[in-house]
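Worked example (supplementary).
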Amino acid sequence: MNIADIINPANLVYEKTKVMNDVPMHYCPGCSHGVVHKIVGEIIEEMGIQDKTIGVAPVGCAVFAYKYLDIDWQQAAHGRAPAVATGIKRLLPDRYVFTYQGDGDLAAIGTAETIHACNRGENIAIIFINNGIYGMTGGQMAPTTLKGMKSSTSPNGREVSLAGHPLNISELLAKLEGTCYVTRQAVHTVAAVKKCKRAIQKALENSMENKGTSIVEVVSTCSSGWKMTPADSNNWMVDNMFPEYPMGDLKNI
Amino acid sequence: MAKFKGAVVVNTERCKGCDLCVVACPYDVLSLSKDANSKGLNFSYMSTPDNCIGCMACATVCPDACITVYKVRNDQ
Amino acid sequence: MTDQNNEEVLLMKGNEAIAHAAIRCGCDGYFGYPITPQSEIMETLMELEPWNTTGMVVLQAESEVASINMVYGAAGCGKKSMTTSSSPGVSLMQEGISYMAGSELPCLIVNVMRGGPGLGTIQASQADYFQTVKGGGHGDYRIITLAPASVQEMADHVSLAFDLAFKYRTPAMILADGIIGQMMEKVVLPPYQPRWTEGEIREKSPWATLGKRPQNKPNVITSLALQAEEMEELNLRLQARYREIENNEVIYEELNCEDADYIFVAFGTSARVCQKAMELAREEGIKAGLIRPITLYPFPKDILKHYASKVKGMLTVEMNAGQMVEDVKLSTCGKIPVEFYGRMGGIVPSPDEVLNALKTKLIEI
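After joint prediction of all chains, the assembly is encoded as:
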């Protein structure tokens, strides 16, 4: 059978989700954001909730998330996505409301909003992309930058005596009574992508069951910020990020 | 002979040549082209199409959702 | 007690009137953080439990920063949402207010001003005039600003502010002060209006993020445009809307100006003091009048310009170091002397002080 015979709508097994539009994403080649956007779109399509979902985009690389997924969106000020999502969900309790935030947004400038939304048990899903760096602004040190990890504002590596420790905020959030599901995932392999997709779907489902806040941390790569190829970034992430930010559920009620 | 036979279509304009699909493919089907798209990026293509079984690994890890996968049962 | 229209006349604080009026005008959501001298607003709401009656949501946030962003989220869904605070808290909200102006979101913010700068004092002040009418946050924007001078106006301005905010897709602020918030007066509360249904919201605010409709494009609330041309386009749209607001929505009160030689210009509590000073002046044979801007933005410049060719001078009285006086001077184009008298740090000037200032600064020179 030749290729032309195989490439036939009848044999289609995978295509870009219809929730994701044709606008080319601005992310750097190999960026984890693209994978996570894609699986969020797939989940929304599979759950049939495109008309009931409102996303909250952050400040950071994912600020333009609203250009790529065809759902209603609000773009929040830096770090304020959990507060914005609170406002939406409290007024529209029958909608799926999620935030999509990076580590600088969620764990530095927005720490208060994150912790208090989780502590109130807002019925929202928080998708947290942790790549240990500020990608959008050009690779500065983030709250989650590893000890000794180089960035443009820690050119000789993060020194704990100067900049403090990497912040394991998911562990912190798991301790709060308001959270029902806190999990740490990645999207560097086929198996990881499938697992992460199930986690995000569960987080969205939880948001309708009045169980409290769900957080899916996705340990991610930033090949531009880390100055490596995308494939090398995945390997570096496994070797260096995973020991500090171990995979798996931190809480699942 | 493999039970399934597959083929992928890469949206070459959307592809950024990140290489992650090439790495993810368990059957070494894909490579980055020497040709570049309009943005100057070397897109991915099936360099060994006969090896493809339509497992969707490439499409699953693709950050730009630019791979479409087709698959048929190999009855021959 | 009832008045002629058989409406119930109540006695309450300005802060309480805000809370009652919010529920009655069909407000969907209140998000706030305690700060003196306005905490009674949230306290009253929590006591009234409107979530059991109209369905209005009332939530105590972790900060003013969170409050204004909760308002952003709710307003983005086309809901009538509001927050209230006092000066230091409103400073914290400026980022969110700028975002709401840039994202063209309607909302109500109430600032019951206290003395500053810094932590300042809990006593009444009017020192946030610049912050409010000149744009306290970043970027070229304006917010509609109402300045109540009585408990009745505190109640009335709530639905007026929401109406204007939705008409022009812009935040609106009630700029009161600690006296107006804390004092008790008679008030007739506005009638109940039902909250908007989702169908009504979709009709009134087709931009609202209520969930994408299959036949429509997604709605996106954002103030971001990386292309300069696109950002200028947003700015031009906002500026055109501000001109429209300036042309259509000016509100002021004018007292005894027709025959006046001198006019006091003051808002809020200062205007009440000036009204008394005006009466004292008239008793002494000084023909004094009063112009009280009710909208601080848009500023009533035309009426000031009109009287600039008729009177001998104007005295602007404010509980600050002289802020609105700049707009009075701009409006009168240097045609007459415009003087200023003010007290700061939470002190309210007395009518005698104000009358004395009129004499020394404008008459006995």
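Two points are worth noting when inspecting this output. The first helix of chain A runs from residue 3 to 6. Chain A has a mean pLDDT of 97.
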